[in-house]
Amino acid sequence: MSDERPVWLTSSEGLRLFGRYYPGDAAKPLCLCLHGLTRNSRDFEDFAPRLAQQGYPVLAPDMRGRGESDYADDPSAYRLDVYVRDCLAWLDELNSGAAIWIGSSMGGGISMYAGATAPERVKGLILNDIAPEIDQRGVENIRKIAGKGGPIRSWAEAAQRCRDVNGHVHPKETSEDFWLAFARRTHRQTGQVTFRSDYDPAILSALSAGPSPEDRWKAYDLLREIPTLLVRGALSELVTREIADRMVRQKPNLDRVEVPDTGHTPLLTEIEALDAIFSWLERQ
């Protein structure tokens, strides 16, 4: 189905960072796929191969503290400038100049920060249900859910946990296979009958860290020359339609698509998302 290759990078502090690389046409820009706060590169296991089939080289890294990457010794290292530094090191490792940064939720925040601070390395941005400002009601819902819940003793229990937490994001997904696949992307088996979410619990400190919304909107203004596509889940509780409208007002060249019957965040394999993304990429 795909020519996925495991790749490794050593960070400036000596952390071993993992990525999934899909080779492509050297004439096309690298697509850098960045996951959300509590997720990992497996989020893109269906989407990344579709990009590669179109000839785009793709890298989907596990950000520090997630998946196969090392956990940070100091939780304060779980912040945007450090994540961007890691991503730029990945681009250097792969001899890539400017990439298309495709970020889901936190990954989109990383991408916008890169566009504001290292624009020469950003050929374009695809922001998956993320904005300079996010509705605090959605943040509080994440805070209530993330890291909570009792022990998990089977993949079936993990799948049910995922469905309980994320069912409102994908309300039309009723298949047991869908939620089992979701669980395998987001959980890790640690013993014969023990399972856990696949991230360092210390990353949750990032929910209350980072620049203010005012500073993020100022940084967003620095993206005015960078081609950008916003993919918004029509049911999103973080990126409201009002916030998306403000993004367009401040950046009139912003392209935008809504994915129906989907919350935070779209999978990017929905037909509406794929059509918009491939059309947008062809114009870059």
Overview features:
Rossmann fold; 284 residues; 9 helices; alpha/beta; 8-stranded mixed β-sheet
How would you describe the overall organization of this protein?
This protein is α/β, with parallel strands linked by helices. The protein has one domain: Alpha/Beta hydrolase fold, catalytic domain (Rossmann fold). The chain is 34% helix and 18% strand. The protein has nine helices and ten strands. It has an eight-stranded mixed β-sheet with strand order 1-2-4-3-5-6-9-10, with helices on both faces. β1 and β2 form a beta hairpin. It is globular, with a radius of gyration of 18 Å. The model has no long low-confidence stretch (mean pLDDT 93).
Please provide a brief summary of the model.
The chain is of the alpha/beta class.
What is the mean pLDDT? Answer: 93
Classify the fold: give the CATH topology: Rossmann fold
Low-confidence stretches: none
- CATH homology superfamily name: Alpha/Beta hydrolase fold, catalytic domain
- List SSEs in N-to-C order: EEEHEHEHEHHHEEHEHEH
Kindly state the percentage of residues in helix: 25-40%
